[in-house]
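Input (structure):
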């Protein structure tokens, strides 16, 4: 078990031990991503036109096991940014097209404004609005257990470019998409 910093829900080892490292501009990366059956773009919008807050934009995926406790999750890409809504909306649409994935967007702040902006940018992009009823801390607690079980795999996230350049590709032997 990872020793956690005070207030942390999971530790770096919970992420690093199951990380997938593949050069992003490679056939191996594209093949790996294609094997992930469920994908979506998760958006936690920033509502300011002079952004001080980060707009959370994360491409995630999952296996399709009918029993949720057997599913593996993948953090495919983190495109979070500090930007005005017209800028991050373009990025969300680009990712939805790149990964052929719907957009799940939190609507607590901004209501359906952001859904409309995404549809104006590209009407073909599927948008799933979600209103959060619990705090971020409570929602994060539910994510801790799959991390501790090794069922969440970050793909090239939070790694310096030098790591993969020096050490090459590394796919965790525990990854459900290998072999």
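Output (sequence):
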């Amino acid at each position: 078990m990872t020793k956690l910093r005070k207030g942390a829900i999971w530790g770096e080892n919970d992420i690093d031990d199951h990380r997938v490292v593949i050069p992003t501009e490679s056939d191996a990366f594209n093949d790996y991503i294609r094997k992930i059956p469920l994908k979506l773009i998760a958006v936690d919008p920033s509502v300011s036109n002079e952004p001080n807050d980060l707009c959370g934009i994360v491409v995630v995926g999952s296996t399709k096991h009918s029993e949720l406790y057997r599913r593996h999750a993948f953090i495919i890409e983190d495109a979070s940014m500090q930007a005005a809504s017209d800028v991050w909306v373009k990025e969300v649409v680009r990712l939805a097209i790149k990964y052929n994935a719907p957009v799940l967007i939190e609507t607590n702040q901004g209501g359906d404004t952001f859904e409309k902006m995404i549809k104006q940018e590209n009407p073909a992009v599927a948008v799933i609005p979600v209103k959060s009823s619990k705090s971020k801390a409570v929602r994060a607690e539910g994510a801790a257990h799959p991390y501790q079980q090794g069922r969440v795999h970050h793909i090239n996230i939070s790694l310096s470019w030098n790591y993969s350049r020096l050490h090459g590709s590394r796919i965790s032997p525990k990854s459900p998409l290998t072999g």
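Notes: Residues 159-174 have pLDDT under 50 and may be disordered. The helical segments are 12-16, 27-34, 85-99, 113-121, 136-148, 161-167.
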